[in-house]
What we know:
This protein is α+β, with helices and mostly antiparallel strands and about 250 residues long. The protein contains eight helices and seven strands, in the order αααββαββαααβββα. The protein is elongated and about 70 Å long. The protein starts with a helix and ends in a 7-residue tail after the last helix.
Amino acid sequence: MSDRQGVQSIEVGLRLVKLLAERAQPLALKDLAAGAHMPAAKAHRYLVSLIRAGLAEQDRESGRYRLGPLALDIGLSALRQVDVLKFGGEALADLRAATDETVLLAIWGNKGPVVARWEESTRPVATNVRAGWVMPMLNSATGRCFAAYLPAAATVAMLEAEFEQRPDERARYPARLDEIRAHGLARVEGDLLRGVASVAAPVFGHGGGIVAVIAALGPQGAFDVAWDGGNARAVKDAAARLSARLGFARRG
């Protein structure tokens, strides 16, 4: 199958998923086929693949089709991201106003930590980091924060790729992550960008997992990175307030 045929095949399957999402009740094969403008036999072949992928499922009693568990997970994940970006943008504006430091909100993408929001200080930092930038895992406070709290399976491939470029980091990296978890905070001083320091704190969602990172950054030497310093407290407080707004309840 060519790439073009593969794309067309995906598009046809997603037409069926879209129909299932638009209707409030399970649909019979003939109704799905009619709605997607295809023969019933063709619709059935696609539905078999969609069921196998978890995007659809068939009711055993009625034989009708509805969205599957993966489709529901994708929908819930999308809703959570909307909340993270909406409320995170507000939290970032408040943090920027309180500290007058450059601040960012990062979420986890398919290539690693992605800067989703960026608020500039009145004292701009000499950096090319902006919204849409993918942060490295080894030498950014944001990347280390995600590495400390995400399941290892989510980060291992990216870390290995970076370890190949920075083999000196492999031995000391576990201790770095332990330190972050002990303080609830990651910090760097010139590790990523010469002359730039940063502190970052994790944001947790309703289920208890990390969903974002809030960070502040400024000129190295003039930016306080102490574990209990003003920037650290402000960033941790902002992350905690955002976590609470997203439904996270700390146990113990």
